[in-house]
């Protein structure tokens, strides 16, 4: 187990810049939602869904994204590849960076917050980071071993083609 974790300040809005792993709507294999290569970046940048197993391709160029509180990608609303039952809830991650962040945070025996304290939204203070927004069942010591076990199972699926 890691001794210390310092919140890097990653927000939910940072994660879609990376690849989001989803279940292909055609073959149920591992597909990826990515920003278009060489295109603009940001939350509302056009995306492409691509499944290497069956060749399924679909584009997204909308002006709305879904919520970040459920195991579905915010663009196509497809189920996430990295999703599994855990402690009576669903544990999920968008991709490798999200999984790394969860694993590092949960495994740490000492967790350092960013300062100043978050306000939970609104116009005062700074917005909450991803790890500050995690539910207690993920961050609590009571479920640490089970959460880490499920995160390891999810990580193992990254190496399977």
What characteristics describe this protein?
alpha+beta, single chain, globular, 161 residues
Would you mind describing this structure in some detail?
The mean pLDDT is 87. Helices cover 18% and strands 21% of the residues. It has helices at 96-107, 136-139, 144-156, and strands at residues 4-6, 20-23, 30-35, 47-50, 57-60, 82-86, 89-93, 110-112. The protein has a four-stranded antiparallel β-sheet, with no helix packed on it. Strands 1-8 form a two-stranded parallel sheet. The protein has 161 residues and is of the alpha+beta class. The protein has three helices and eight strands, in the order βββββββαβαα. It is globular and about 40 Å long. Helix 1 (96-107) packs antiparallel against helix 3 (144-156). A hairpin with a 6-residue loop joins strand 4 (47-50) and strand 5 (57-60).
Provide a concise account of the structure shown:
The protein is α+β, with helices and mostly antiparallel strands and 161 residues long.
Radius of gyration: 16 Å
The level of helicity is 10-25%
SSE pattern, N- to C-terminal: EEEEEEEHEHH
How much of the sequence lies in strands comes to 15-25%
Uncertain residue ranges: none
Strand order of the largest sheet: 2-3-4-5
Name the assembly state.
Answer: single chain
Shape assignment: globular
Number of helices, counting only DSSP H or I runs of 4 residues or more = 3
Termini gap = 28 Å
């Amino acid at each position: 187990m890691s001794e210390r974790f310092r919140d890097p300040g990653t927000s939910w809005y940072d994660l879609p810049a990376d690849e989001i792993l989803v279940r292909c709507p055609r073959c149920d294999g591992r597909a990826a939602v990515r920003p278009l290569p060489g295109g603009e970046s940001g939350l509302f940048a056009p995306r492409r869904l691509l499944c290497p197993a069956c060749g399924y391709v679909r584009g997204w160029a909308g002006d709305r994204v879904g919520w970040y509180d459920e195991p579905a990608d915010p663009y196509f609303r497809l189920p996430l590849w990295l999703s599994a039952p855990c402690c009576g809830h669903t544990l999920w991650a968008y991709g490798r960076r999200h999984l790394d962040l969860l694993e590092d945070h949960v495994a740490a025996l000492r967790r350092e917050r960013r300062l100043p304290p978050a306000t939970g939204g609104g116009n005062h203070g700074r917005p909450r980071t991803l790890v500050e927004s995690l539910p207690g069942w993920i961050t609590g010591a009571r479920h640490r071993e089970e959460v880490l076990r499920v995160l390891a199972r999810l990580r193992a699926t990254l190496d399977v083609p």
